[in-house]
Amino acid sequence: MTLNLGGSPGPGGIVESTWLATSKDGGLTWSPLRELPLVGIVPDRLHVLDDGRWLVSAHYHVPDGPYRLVQKAIASDDSGASFGAEARVAGDPALQLCEVSLLPRGGGRVDAFLREDQGVRYPTLRCTSRDGGRTWGALEAHPSRGHRITTGLLTDGRLFATYRNVAGLPATCAWLGSPDARGSVPSGVCLAPAKAVLEDDALLLDTSEGGALELGHDPLESLAESELTFEAEVRLLDAEPAAAVLRGGALVRLRPGQLELEACGDLAPHVHPIDLTRWRRVRLSLAHGEASVHVDGERLFAAPLGRDLPRTARIVAFGNLPQPARGAYRYVENRGQSLWRSVSIEVKNPRLPGYRWSWSAASGRFPDHEEREHQAVLWLESSGQVFDHGYTGWTPLHDGALLVVNYARGDAPKPAIHAYRVAVG
After folding, report:
1. Residue 181 shares a structural domain with residue 231
2. Which of 17, 103, 187, 391 is paired with 149 by a 20 to 30 Å CA distance?
């Protein structure tokens, strides 16, 4: 058992020390706690690799320079009698990397699944060691979007992971698929009674009776330096102010009789009267800190991005617009019906990899079809909390099912630990 406990406060007053206790009777009794030479918090479980090596990891607040997090690990080759020096698992000045889940694969290979902590909907990130945790490779995206992810391999070799969804859906989710799956995929939010319906030539996003619908991809690295081309072929049947938007740096609100561009925080939006009950091709572009909007190839207006925009302005998404309030998601003035025929997104970043993605209703698939195939909701957090839920663990049972435990709030006055029995097909 590894714990973050005691020790001297580190940067920001956070206690960053890792302690170890062991049991030889199935957890009935435990040895005295022993501090490990690993400065950090939120340690992963201790893993014993197939060659007997012990490996444990924690993340650390870097004290100098801009605030950021890095993930580190230590190892023992003598069953815990001594541990070697810290090795950096992952760190990047543009990212906040933490809360690792290590996944031993055998033969010295260990995969590390990491949370990105800026709250702008980055995917789960992964890197790999092929020498038992001594050195680690480059970061790459995984097709989940999770905080505090817990991974493991099932008996059939598939990867099972549980996590708090970080793509706008207040839920604890599970991901099931190949352990070698890689690459970021679009994500979606669908809260009842809202409906997303694929029709003959368009995707209907229907929140006329309530609920919420939103779809998105990876965020912009920088509002000042990233470039974005975000185009959608869309038609409105009805839309309140937060029912149909494009966002990425700036915010484009689509209304039946007008289009609005919000780019400067609290300043008044640019408004252009236009009939959006007809099919229109709307493009939001961002370059050199300036946002521009084109409709059917005609440039309507452009505006510099404001300096006071929150970092959540880096989120790239379309559909409904949530209103975060005190750490929770709230959807207001988002009732409406909109039809989407095609969407394309291209992002270029100054340091991190960019991407190009496109979707058409003619494909017969939802924009987030890959996520729908691999992700399941285990617990929908009715409180709407963004962060105070979804801390999970799981273990296989003797009959092949899985026992998942989850820290969640729901409608109760205080959070509690919930347990679920999950059957995997």
Report:
1. no
2. 17
Provide the 3-class DSSP secondary structure of residue 11.
helix
The dihedrals phi and psi of 293, each to the nearest 5 degrees, come to -130, 130
Number of C-beta neighbours around residue 198 at 10 A:
14
Q: What are phi and psi of 363, to 5 degrees?
A: -70, -20
Whole-model pTM?
A: 0.94
- Write the burial class of residue 95 (CB in 10 Å: 0-12 exposed, 13-18 middle, 19+ buried): buried
274, 257 in Cβ contact below 8 A? yes
Q: Pick the closest to residue 47 from 110, 90, 129 (CA basis).
A: 110
Last residue of some domain: 367, 388, 413?
367
Q: Between β-strands 290-295 and 336-348, what pairing exists: parallel, antiparallel or unpaired?
A: unpaired
Final residue before a domain boundary, out of 367, 390, 414? 367
Report which of 381, 376, 370 is spatially closest to residue 402, judged by C-alpha positions: 376
Domain count, the chain: 2
Per the document, the length of the chain is: 425
Sign of CA dihedral 262, 263, 265, 271: negative
404 and 362 housed in the same domain: no
Could you tell me if 349 and 415 lie in one domain?
Answer: no
In this structure, are 352 and 270 located in the same domain?
A: yes
Nearest to 317 by CA among 395, 246, 224: 246
Both tokens of 403, joined, read: 């026992």
pLDDT tens digits for range 109-167: 999 999 999 999 999 999 999 999 999 999 999 999 999 999 999 999 999 999 999 99
Residue for token pair 């995206």: 141
